[in-house]
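Incident log, support desk, overnight shift.

02:14 A customer reports that sequence design results differ from what the structure should imply. Their input is reproduced verbatim below. On-call engineer (initials T.W.) acknowledged and began investigating.
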């Protein structure tokens, strides 16, 4: 258990401390920006410029972001929404698919990076791409992402113009995945 002195904490941080003085559970929120083409990757220079742009979006009065960085992946990688995702529906038969099934697929694969996305779904036995399943909260598959950890501002997610600006910077249209862990 982690104990801490609460007199030096900001009001925001004090909200995570239990009355007993024990630090409560803290979760992280991410905005994960990925290309719409799951195989596409920008140049390293464009990736660095994208990080600077995203960090700048959270630099106004009362705005903040804990960390912004980019990541290149060797293989197509699941860009999940964490706890935001609560339901998966088959793109073939429209039946619900258990989140445990996706967890099993990831474990059997050895991680969230994939050589191919075609999998046999448990509901109807069809072979479908993981990227064609319907997730109740947007997820994605990509070989590149820019992520902003614990961003804070009046409008949490990026708007259409900011996504367009990001696309101009990296050289390809992007989408966002809002994740909670």
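02:41 Re-run completed on a clean worker. Output:
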């Amino acid at each position: 258990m982690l104990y801490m002195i609460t007199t030096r904490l900001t009001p925001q941080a004090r909200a995570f401390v239990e009355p007993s003085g024990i630090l409560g559970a803290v979760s992280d929120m991410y905005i994960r920006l990925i290309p719409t083409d799951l195989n596409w990757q920008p140049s390293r220079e464009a990736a660095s410029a994208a990080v600077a742009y995203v960090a700048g979006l959270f630099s106004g009065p009362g705005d903040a972001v804990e960390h912004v960085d980019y990541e290149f992946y060797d293989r197509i990688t699941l860009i999940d929404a964490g706890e935001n995702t609560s339901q998966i529906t088959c793109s073939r038969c429209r039946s619900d698919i258990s989140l445990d099934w996706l967890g099993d697929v990831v474990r059997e694969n050895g991680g969230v990076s994939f050589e191919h996305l075609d999998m046999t779904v448990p509901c109807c036995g069809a072979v479908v791409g993981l990227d064609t399943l319907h997730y109740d909260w947007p997820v994605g598959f990509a070989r590149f992402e820019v992520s902003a950890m614990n961003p804070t501002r009046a409008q949490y997610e990026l708007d259409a113009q900011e996504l367009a600006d990001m696309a101009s910077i990296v050289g390809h249209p992007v989408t966002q995945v809002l994740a909670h862990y």
